[in-house]
Specification:
The chain is an alpha/beta fold. The protein is built from 8 helices and 8 strands. It has a single domain (5-219), classed as Alpha-Beta Barrel (TIM Barrel), CATH 3.20.20.70. An 8-stranded parallel β-sheet has the order 1-8-7-6-5-4-3-2. The chain starts with a strand and ends with a helix. It binds D-xylitol-5-phosphate and zinc ion. Zinc ion is lined by residues 9, 34, 36, 67, 176, 196. D-xylitol-5-phosphate binds next to strand 2, strand 8 and helix 7.
Length: 220
């Protein structure tokens, strides 16, 4: 079985000490940097944009997993590729021509991800799952860190896992929102491959240790 990944979300980092927090992730057992881009339209919050991402990319030495919570993401695919994105995830709910968007992301050499809001059914991906590298299941409503985990997520993971195997796809399952040591094990046991964790990592006293603990928990 391939190893399960942990992706700390920089949304919960200390922006006044961003380089320090990036170095912490660089030297930790974390696998990816999860970076949330919000436009204040698709979600009721604005996070950070290109100049901050450029600064992050300068210091980060691991996979850059970019989660776009923006309308009309097609406009910026090239820009994110130029800034060093490795995985670029768009929201299903923000794309009228999802197939075209995924092709455009891959044409820029990135892995293509699709995120689903809590109310969006797994079944909408039936005809496109083999084109998706990563499905990100939102386990909170997108827009803010620190919210509580929605329990129906386990049910969605099971359905997605079944769809992936029915279609013979190679898609990774990523879970985002309210992840902690309380649910991490059950999430991977249900079929998750990548866990995003923001507040749980950055609000803890020993961030590196917290990352190692979750990494051990999900790989044993
Ligand atoms: C929420 C973001 C998440 C957020 C998770 O819209 O997509 O990545 O940073 O934060 P926690 O782990 O605190 O729920
Ligand atoms: Zn996210």
């Amino acid at each position: 079985m391939s190893s399960k990944l942990i992706a700390p979300s920089l949304l919960a980092a200390d922006f006044g000490n961003l380089q320090r927090d990036i170095e912490m992730v660089n030297t930790s057992d974390a696998d990816w940097f999860h970076i949330d881009i919000m436009d204040g339209v698709f979600v009721p919050n604005i996070s950070y944009g290109m100049p901050v991402l450029e600064a992050i990319a300068k210091h980060a030495t691991k996979t850059l997993d970019i989660h776009l919570m923006i309308v009309d993401p097609d406009r910026y695919i090239k820009t994110f590729a130029q800034l060093g994105a490795n995985v670029l995830t768009v929201h299903y709910e923000a794309c009228n021509h999802l197939h075209r968007t995924l092709q455009a992301i891959k044409a820029e050499g990135m892995k293509a991800g699709v995120a689903l809001n809590p109310h969006t059914s797994i079944s909408v991906l039936e005809e496109i799952i083999t084109d998706i590298d990563v499905v990100l299941i939102m386990s909170v409503n997108p827009g803010f860190g620190g919210q509580s985990f929605i329990e129906n997520t386990y049910n969605k993971i099971t359905k997605l896992k079944q769809l992936i195997s029915d279609k013979g796809a190679n898609t990774l399952i990523e879970i985002d929102g309210g992840v902690s040591d309380k649910n991490a094990k059950q999430l991977v046991d249900s079929g998750a491959d990548v866990l995003v964790a923001g507040s749980f990592v950055f609000k803890s006293n020993n961030q590196k240790q917290t990352i190692s603990n979750i990494k051990d928990l999900i790989n044993n």
